[in-house]
Amino acid sequence: MLNVEKIDLHYGAAQALRGVSIEAHFGQVSCVLGRNGVGKSSLLRAVVGQQPISGGAITFDGKRIDAMAPAARARAGIAYVPQGREIFAMLTVQENLETGFAPLPRKDRSIPSELFDLFPILKTMLSRRGGDLSGGQQQQLAIARALVTRPRLLVLDEPTEGIQPSIIKDIGRTISYLRRRGDMAILLVEQYFDFAKELADRWYVMERGEVSLAGTRETMDETEIRRRMSI
């Protein structure tokens, strides 16, 4: 599992995270909720290695990873779908998917056919440039590219942002399927509470760089979570 223990994170003199602790277990979805600017994306950047922490510890499968470079974390099985998708606009869908080969040994460098069961539209668009896809199609491509790496931890930063409802449902079904497989932990940042509510096994609400409320699906207080997200 992923264990983030009391981490601090600074951008220069500004402190973005204060003593944040979360967990993500195999076969479960851990959701981090909160308004804009509370530190959710900073937390994910700390997990994947894009921003160094200034205190605390991050472990994955019982090993400290907070000093590892992002590429080393990718080789360890951590895949990241960033906010804004960051697909390569001038590359084809096929080529975008193949960029997921980078952390894999040569023998594993293939695109799993399962991805086209999850996202059938991508199979029909393999020769199209990524920049020609709609926002929803680009989001599906970004998730598929992450899955090409055969991750054991999938990190998703607001996958529903700016996406039409039909594709939000497709993404929700994909996350549910991956959870049922049981061989992957999923860490999801969301502002869309109704989407997160259907998926979360564990949830954390962030305010001002801290976790202010946390629990499991069984202890979820929807009214209190919504109140904190609207303050």
Please provide a written account of the structure.
With 231 residues, this protein is an alpha/beta fold. It has a single domain, classed as P-loop containing nucleotide triphosphate hydrolases (Rossmann fold). Helices cover 33% and strands 27% of the residues. It contains nine helices and ten strands. The protein has helices spanning 40-48, 70-75, 93-98, 114-118, 120-123, 135-148, 165-181, 193-199, 222-230; strands at residues 2-11, 14-24, 29-33, 55-60, 63-64, 78-81, 153-157, 185-190, 202-207, 210-216. A six-stranded mixed sheet has the order 6-7-8-3-9-10, with helices on both faces. It is globular and about 45 Å long. The two termini are 32 Å apart. The mean pLDDT is 95.
Query: What is the highest CATH level, the class?
Result: Alpha Beta
Mean pLDDT over the residues: 95
The CATH architecture term is 3-Layer(aba) Sandwich
Summarize the main sheet: 6 strands, mixed
H and E order? EEEHEEHEHHHHEHEHEEH
The dominant shape is: globular
* Number of separate helices: 9
Strand line-up in the sheet with most strands: 6-7-8-3-9-10
